[in-house]
Design brief:
alpha/beta, Rossmann fold, 2 domains, two-stranded antiparallel sheet, about 40% helix, globular
Length: about 200
């Protein structure tokens, strides 16, 4: 079995760091929920799309150190290694932000993975060679197919829809904030414990 996992908003949670940075920059009021999507929608409604884009560049770049792994995700990789399940991280991520300073987003992401022990191959089975950053969504789909993933886990239903159901890949929607309650096209799970129960099963009981 081979499992592919998205990076942004699937392994790493940005909700709190986006909220903290937005407040410090005076972009939002205190009543805006500490969720990335709520902050994005608030700024877009306020016609501040350019500030949102620049904020993303910072958070995905040097600010990523303030982001946390979703609870249980590191354990998921550890259980997969123990069960002999191969894992890959496959993300759609540009190397540079769309606006603002030219941070190296790939280097920042790899640094975050290392700092949070995901690249400790003895425990997680992951090495740098198992981490892929695709320039386009089409390339991301191709990487999933090329690595023969049995499962792919992502937080975006619109991306999972790009993976044809006919190719035999089980598509798992990671939805920790219950944003997609009506989604029925994919297996929808709200925690990494639930993902582990599905994929690794009895090893996490």
């Amino acid at each position: 079995m081979i499992v592919g996992i998205d990076f942004d908003n699937t392994i790493v949670s940005y909700d709190q760091i986006f909220h903290t940075e937005s407040l410090e920059r005076g972009l939002i009021s205190l009543d805006v929920p500490a969720r990335k999507d709520a902050i994005r929608d608030y700024l877009r409604k306020a016609a501040k799309e350019d500030l949102w884009t620049e904020l993303q560049g910072y958070v995905y770049g040097p600010g990523i150190g303030g982001a946390l792994p979703f609870p249980g995700v590191l354990s998921f990789f550890e259980h997969c290694r123990a069960a002999g399940i191969k894992t890959y991280i496959i993300s759609h991520k540009t190397k540079l932000p769309y606006a603002g300073p030219r941070y190296d987003l790939h280097a920042s992401a790899l640094g975050w993975l290392s700092a949070n022990n995901f690249l400790d191959s003895a425990s997680t089975g992951l090495e740098i060679a198992d981490v892929f950053f695709a320039a386009t969504k089409q390339e991301k789909v191709q990487l999933i197919q090329r690595n023969h993933c049995s499962y792919f886990i992502d937080d975006l239903p619109e991306f999972l829809q790009e993976i044809a159901a006919s190719n035999g890949i089980e598509r798992v929607l990671f939805d920790p904030n219950n944003v997609h309650l009506d989604e029925e096209r994919f297996v929808r799970l709200t925690s990494w414990r639930a993902v582990a129960d599905l994929i690794v099963g009895e090893l996490v009981q």
